[in-house]
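Study the following:
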Amino acid sequence: MLFRSAERNEALAKGNISSEMRGAIEARYRVAVDAATQKERNDREFINAQREKELRMMQMQGEYLVKMEIFNQRRADLEGQRYKMNAFDYRIAEERLALEKKLAELEQQRKEALEKVGGRETNSEYYNAKTQIEGMVQAEKALSEIRIGNIEQERARQQSFSEGWNQAFRQFSEDADRKST
């Protein structure tokens, strides 16, 4: 910009320049000034957009850390209540808490993917990431249901009267066989 101004002043300082030439020099100078001003405006907008994006990412990460701290508190509360619970109820509560935490992590990944593409939900990269994350959410939910089902089956098996007697008999027989040999 300073170079253009000096160039303009030098050209206009010459005394034998026609008015047309002076007008052309002024027009070139105005175009150069307008281009520099527009470039500066675009650069500032870009920098501001980057700052806003970084601030949103930092805010999302802060919210995520708060959520994770809440999960850690809930986990500590669960540990504190453990002595009041039977082993099955504790394992089920632990599984549910782990599922909630995993779902929160996946939601954070989805938000980060959206922010990565500038908030454009129609972007194909975001759509692919979102689809993959949704699949992971469904898989986590299904796995959690299976784990809880297994815990419930184990509880039912242990609480079954005949299973209890059969288990005790098998254990007695194994112990007797080991002692007799």
Notes: The first helix runs from residue 2 to 13.
